[in-house]
TrEMBL record, chains A, B:
PANTHER family named in the record: AMINOTRANSFERASE (PTHR42790), KYNURENINE_ALPHA-AMINOADIPATE AMINOTRANSFERASE, MITOCHONDRIAL (PTHR42790:SF19)
Any one Gene Ontology molecular-function term assigned to this protein's record: transaminase activity
Organism: Kutzneria chonburiensis
Domain called Aminotransferase class I/classII large: residue spans: 76-419
Protein name in the entry: PLP-dependent aminotransferase family protein
Cofactor: pyridoxal 5'-phosphate
Gene3D superfamilies, sorted: Aspartate Aminotransferase, domain 1 (3.90.1150.10), Type I PLP-dependent aspartate aminotransferase-like (Major domain) (3.40.640.10)
Annotated keywords: Aminotransferase, Pyridoxal phosphate, Transferase
Length: 431, 431
């Protein structure tokens, strides 16, 4: 008998593995990996200019000092808190609640917070909890961050698109989609959106739209999943309160990230889930039960890195990100001005003008698919993200997303020259 | 109109949330939390005696030094590696592969390793990948670690029990269960087991049983999911190779944990998944796609803590755990001797005698359910784990698990006196 190595049948693996939502991320990373010299407007990563390994050591030490002094722990207990298995809902929930009060005037019970392995785990847990049967669906303002679509695929939950429109969410379409889904026997559970500088479109909701959305959520009896990774990075003109800060009816599940405001490498995020469940528990406690079977608990060492940062700036990420916010504002201005200057003679090339965040969307007259990206990288040395990935294959084929968060001003100028050349060439091919 | 807070219907949340596999963990933690003064033989946590925050700083610095010196990274690139979003499969895969070669004589391609948020995420990803339809099931040697049962619940995958028997796995029962499942239209995908010092039973498989199990896995066309958290903590009499080290046919998916051998608070584990998939990829790459939608990537800071520890001991966790292994050996001996001395007059009270690991199982003549645990904690000040939690409600009602990993020798003596008083009282109530 010869020993044969097993070969797994891809048709017998979970269907998400062949879904574009999961494969597109890999594909885009793979293209970027093949063109390391290209100027990358592609990744929505925070700036790397201020990374400092000494900060890491100081922040961990600061959190330990806080455990000793403010919490009255013995050194042995503080070390246990840092190194041992720990509370499933996390150990920095009080500091997270304080941050939300300081920066967002959002007052939440620390017990309603689950600290997660990045915002991605928070999304995954919420969707896993809400997907009880094959009839459960969520809605999402389209274009949608692919992380949500992917997490939904993992729990076999369809994502129904809601039109974005100029207001950031088309409320009539939301109502129509929910009603149509119910008429078809489906159970719409929640609507996901990024109300502030949406990824990828950069659109923000006005205060009035936020209030109307909260009323509509009650009327339709759905939850709202609010994701807010970029809220702090605005143009200085102020911004309305978050949906959660306006939420008097516990309709909003708030998804928090420290990846852009503290350290991506900590992989620490959180969810505020203060909804009551009819069994007497908080929704946060239900999510915690799920978390115990996905990651057990979030690394307390990683939590300490984020907590130390929060303590260093007295709970304020606005204060912690003064340099970063200034850099993003400058870069966004350079990107917008640079695009306008280069496409002044092309009224058919249009762009959105977000009040903050990392992203600008450019609409062109040719097909911006993955093959176009490959040509752009190979012939012009510039990378961007095809927008169709955010539409789950239903649109965005003539749009590209530019991110300005990890490029220098000089790279922006050179990168835009290259992009302009690419656009000229692609448009010329149409004739 | 008065504003009503939403109340979620627990019947409309995912079924796992009401499953004993998820609620029992909470219940046991909750009992332990209410009796902080009780002596706890309950938790399977590593010793806390050697936790040292200075080690954390030194280990991170050591890993950064390795990036600079051994990998030739610039300081900026090293900091990016530590702080930025990173490779989904992890950044310490080469060091993990080296550790497996050094300690386990297991030679694996670093590309077949996915670094995960603890071993729990590794289990979850493997089960998510293998559960494609409602017909897919896994098997698990019973009693089973609840983390597997819970992860399976999250993906709606039944877990069929396989008898453990004196060999650690009853191979005839495994074959019978797989055939019966197939006859019932089910699709058995894999069998989960802990071949070395199983949790909770402490049983180990002989070399011969391992070889026969590998042959049987091929014959039955299933995978083996090998979990090995305690392998290093043996009584010095040596141990057979892991299933993965013996696996020439890529039938074994190896689940790795650093929680007991490095730092639980890092929450770093891994999976070796070197199986080929018929689409040309490695199973590890499929798992990585799923991971990108659960946690994106494992905190590189947490990975650095583990990697620094590996570098400190030249890749060997055997070397890194000399003090810990000695402590566990001493404690296990004290526990076994103490039990024998206290129950010498009770031939009906029996126990297993594992060659290592953290756990001893005691069989008594009364019902050891959660109510008995509560009485034990309240009246006698001693905590243990009711074994029925590891049988998914199908057995173990007269067994309790004792863990000796986080107690001192003095606590073992006092705790066993209390346990003996509890057993006497419970047995007397039967008369």
């Amino acid at each position: 008998m010869t020993h044969q190595s097993v070969v797994l049948d891809s048709g017998q693996l979970h269907s998400s593995l062949s879904d574009p939502a999961l494969t597109s991320m890999n594909l885009l990373n793979e293209v970027a990996g093949r063109y390391p010299e290209a100027i990358a407007f592609a990744a929505g990563r925070p700036t790397e200019q201020f990374f400092d390994v000494d900060d890491l050591h100081r922040d961990v030490a600061r959190f330990r000092e806080y455990l000793l002094r403010d919490k009255g722990y013995t050194p042995a207990r503080a070390d246990r808190e840092l190194f041992q298995y720990g509370r499933t809902k996390g150990i920095v929930h009080e500091l997270v609640a304080r941050n939300l009060a300081v920066d967002e005037r959002m007052h939440v019970d620390p017990e309603s917070i689950v600290v997660t392995v990045g915002c991605q785990e928070a999304m995954f847990l919420v969707l896993r909890a809400l997907r009880a049967t094959a009839d459960d669906v969520i809605l999402a303002v389209s274009p949608t961050y692919v992380g949500v679509t992917g997490a939904a695929r993992l729990v076999d939950m369809p994502v129904l698109p809601v039109r974005e429109g100029p207001a950031g969410i088309d409320l009539d379409d939301l109502a129509a989609q929910v009603r149509a889904a119910r008429a078809a026997g489906l159970r719409p559970r929640a609507c996901y959106l990024v109300p502030e500088f949406a990824n990828p479109s950069g659109v923000s909701l006005t205060l009035e739209t936020r209030l109307r959305l909260l009323d509509l959520a009650e009327e339709l009896d759905i939850l709202l999943l609010e994701d807010n990774p970029y809220g702090l990075f605005h143009d200085g003109s102020g911004r309305p309160p978050t949906l959660k800060a306006l939420d008097s009816r516990r309709r909003v599940v708030y998804l928090g990230s420290f990846a852009k405001t503290a350290v991506p490498g900590a992989r620490v995020g959180y969810v505020v889930a203060d909804q009551l469940v009819d069994n007497g528990s908080l929704f946060a406690d239900e999510l915690s039960k799920l978390k115990s079977m996905v990651t057990v608990n979030t690394s307390p060492i990683a939590q300490a890195v984020v907590a130390g940062r929060l303590l260093r700036f007295d709970g304020s990420l606005v204060e912690a990100n003064r340099r970063e916010a200034e850099l993003y504002r400058t870069n966004l201005r350079l990107l917008l001005d640079g695009l306008e200057a280069r496409f002044a003679d092309r009224p058919d090339v249009t762009l959105n003008v977000p009040g903050g965040g990392f992203f600008v969307v450019v609409t062109v007259d040719f097909r911006c698919d993955d093959a176009a990206l490959e040509r752009s990288a190979l012939k012009h040395g510039v990378l961007w993200t095809p927008m169709h990935h955010f539409y789950a294959g239903t649109g965005g084929f003539s749009q590209l997303r530019l991110s300005c968060s990890v490029v220098t001003p000089a790279q922006i100028e050179t990168g835009l020259d290259r992009l302009a050349a690419f656009v000229r060439e692609e448009s010329a091919m149409l004739v």
